[in-house]
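== Folding the chain ==

***
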Amino acid sequence: YTEAWDADKKSIHVMPDTPDILLAKANAANVSNKLYVKAWEEAKKKGYDMRADAIPIKTAKASRDIASDYKYKETHEKEKGHYIGCPSAKEDPKLAWAARAMALQNDRLYKKAYNDSKTQIHIPVDALSVQAAKECQTLVSDIDYRQYLHQWTCLPDQNDVIHARQAYDLQSDNVYKSDLEWLRGIGWLTEGSVDVVKAKKAQELLNDRLYRTRPEQLKFTSITDSPDVVLAKTNAMQLSDV
């Protein structure tokens, strides 16, 4: 029943000159970006001919020169009329700075030859001051003052060397233990030693019995007719069940 209707629905043909179709085509042309930039793209493909003596180029150059000249003279135009002047050249800061720079330059040029020749000094070797300095150096020299004796070299297995080494060892041991000879046979108790005294002092500092006094050892007598005692007695009588 519906087979013919379904087949007919697929074969609908709309005329291309209907108002709706024409309106849709016009809207598509209006919103198309390709058609919007088509004329610009065609103009770009043709290229352009911009000569150096063209009017826009000359106008741009003239505007640039005018702006550059204005920026260059802007600070000068702002300072016009502000410079009053100074009574003398010393009070003018610019002239004073120029004079100072010129003085420094002249001083440098004046001392240039001296600075170049400062390190080029030649003193004859037989000058009186040089001879006196050499004699003073000889007098104060430690090398000429001390004359070291010849260092004799002995074999380590010689009898006199072995005997001398043993004597040195014995003498060194006697000198090292000489302060202990008077202590031999003397008894010593630890009662007055530093460690014992330090332990006693520490025990006294940590003793709680000496640091604190117990309350029962304090002599205290309460006053029976004081206001707080009378008030406590009255409250006890009022609260007593008897």
